[in-house]
Design brief:
The protein is globular and about 65 Å long. Strand 8 and strand 9 form a beta hairpin. It has an eight-stranded antiparallel β-sheet. With 372 residues, it is an alpha/beta fold. Helix content is 26%, strand content 28%. It has three domains: 184 residues, Rossmann fold (3-Layer(aba) Sandwich); 55 residues, Roll (SH3 type barrels); 96 residues, Beta Barrel (Elongation Factor Tu (Ef-tu), domain 3), CATH 2.40.30.10.
Length: 372
Amino acid sequence: MLIVAAMSGGVDSSVAAALLQAEGHDVLGVTMQIWPDEGRERSERGGGCCAMGAVRDARAVATLLGIPYYVFQMREEFERHVIAHFAAAYAAGRTPNPCVACNEHIKFRALLQKARRLGADALATGHYARIAPGPDGAPCLLRSADRHKDQSYVLHPLRREDLGYLRFPTGGMSKADVRALARELGLPVAGKPDSQEICFVGPEGYAAVVAERRPEAARPGPILDVDGRVLGRHRGLAQYTVGQRRGLGLPGPEPWFVVALDPARNAVVAGRVEQIYAVACSVPQAHWLVARVPPPGTRLTAKVRSGPAEYAVTVVESGPDGFGVEFTEPVRAVTPGQACVLYDGDVVVGGGEIGGVRRSAAGDALERTAVV
């Protein structure tokens, strides 16, 4: 079996390629070149998962394993689908997750198409997730065995029809076991630290990337309370996200928090801590990974941001295009632009970008500013 292995230069994708080779597959290693010429210096200084050094490290691993290795040119796709989308979301008052966009459009759309054109039987990555047959026998996406490293949240935009073509060799392993195996195999990236940064953001911070492409997101404007009274001035919408406390500079005996961003008024809406909790959210465009869309009344769990936190929810509306859920208990800082991903046990049911949020404390007064 010919398998294309996406190699990011990190330990996870390197071990994934090694495992596939050990199983007897013909492995072809590839790294995606995603940086436009003007971004190379920032990439190298930023040191994210797809920085320029990734090619050097991935090639070294491929050489050690004795597998063919190629670099695919995907700069235009990355700029259009990830960086431009990232900037546009902030300008629209949302807080995007660029890893979701990259997985949807780059790794599992553009790269998957290239793998198929090469005649590959499968595409593999180092993601911490699993694929297993569901009740109807069709492949389902599951959490990884290592809950602390699980990446199923950012994989929710995968297409159900593609699941049978994908391989996640490290999904059943712990991170500690992956590193131990990398050391045993003598891989030069065995001790390489995990990337924590957004790959296209350098030391200047993400707001600089947004300001380059969407200057309107860097325009100062008013900070308002939920009733529309002016409290102060902000430094540009791109500098803020729901739940943020720092950087507001507002006086008072109690702290202020960002409750919502209002691009129509170029305003940051601030409130007290109880006003940043949500009781419900809606997803207007969903990616479903199960055969049957969960009907209203279904009880599931949901993640509303990357990380381990998970919340009990009840589906209140659903259809082929989207869904709405209510939280069993109010949830802090549910943010438009992030993803709400639904789980039934370990199975990823589906998910999508949060469009609307209903807050628990300010009622209808917040609805206008919270839904963007």
